[in-house]
Amino acid sequence: MSQQGRFFLLGLLTPIYDLLTMPIAALLAFGAYQLTKQAHVSETTPEETEEEIEMDQMKSPESVVSLLSVDPIEFEFGYGLIPLADANQGGDLLDRIVMIRRQLALELGIVIPVVRIRDNIQLQPNEYRLKIKGNEVARGELLLDHYLAMSPGIEDDSIEGIDTVEPAFGLPAKWISEEMKERAEMFGYTVVDPPSVVSTHITELLKAHAHELLGRQETKQLIDHVKESYPILVEEVTPNPLSVGDIQKVLANLLREKVSIRNLPVIFETLADFARMTTDPDLLTEYVRQALARQITSQYVVEGQPLRVITLSGKVEKMIAEGVQQTEHGNYLALDPVVSQAIIEAIAMQIEQFPFQDQSPILLCSPAVRMYVRQLTERYFRHVPVLSYNELEANVEVQSVGVVNVE
């Protein structure tokens, strides 16, 4: 018989006062019930508990909100490329991306966000793609058991392989086998392994889209970094007369044309000088570019060699200057479509005739129209830099190899 039952009978069958024994029996009965209930709960398996927790989390509003987040940079690949990222199989893609982020911090002065790497069964086995802010910007294909060979300009028929295109720069190339590698190198081919191919592609894509990765939050971090060493300078620029958004637009304009923003003290000195006169980000960008003349010069000039450029005739510059419309929201170029097309065709003709000799073509014009020339050519000649005379140091030897003219 249970302990609580004994106390109950003790109150009924003995002279002991029943009002004293019955509450004790009831208390013991309640305690036994609670112990039984707790034992039953303890018998629940951990798996059932975890499932209940997961179900509760799925029902919570926070579970839906978490689905709204978009990674700044995503690198996805098919299952055939898993060895690239798997350290147990000798993959070093993670280490290469760390080095890419360090390289871009030194070259462009921007901290690239962490790259999310994952496999995607929806892609072809040897396919990969890069997404920025949820949108695909490029994709490519790798053959892990091959090498990518790019010819020095003269094709050799004895080099057999699978014709393809080098993804970073769009050059014709071939996937060749291990046995063909040594022969290709003997004939002057540039031979690259698959991990180097994809890391170069990622590097060039991040450079091209760096201005998209610099938002207000990232700009605020850069401002705080400068403020640690130059507090007075930063106070003179922001929050008055320039907001964080204004500074972000100037820095993004520089990055869009592959001008490094690492020298932030010089950039802020220029903004402090000219922001009292105008808050137009495009005009401020032009002033900053001129202040960075030494940096821009070293970016394009090879020591001991003249800088070969394509210039614009006075007539073309005048046509562009007359096509500038001034509004309260800033200035923009509004050329007649026929005139725009004629200028674009004239520039294309000069670029085709440009004597490369290890140098890419450069457009050189006066400071007054540089910004508008860039607006006109950006869609058609995105990789052709547009410089002004004020962005080159005075001691640079400039050689004009072509003049853009329109009849």
TrEMBL record:
Cellular component per GO, a single term: plasma membrane
**Keyword Metal-binding assigned:** no
Q: Where are the transmembrane segments?
A: 7-33
Domain of life per record = Bacteria
Q: Which InterPro entries match?
A: FHIPEP_1, FHIPEP_3, FHIPEP_4, T3SS_FHIPEP
How is this protein positioned relative to the membrane?
Multi-pass membrane protein
Where located?
Cell membrane
- GO BP: bacterial-type flagellum assembly; protein secretion
Tell me which UniProt keywords the record has, alphabetically.
Cell membrane, Membrane, Transmembrane, Transmembrane helix
Family under the similarity heading: Belongs to the FHIPEP (flagella/HR/invasion proteins export pore) family.
- Name of the protein in question: FHIPEP family
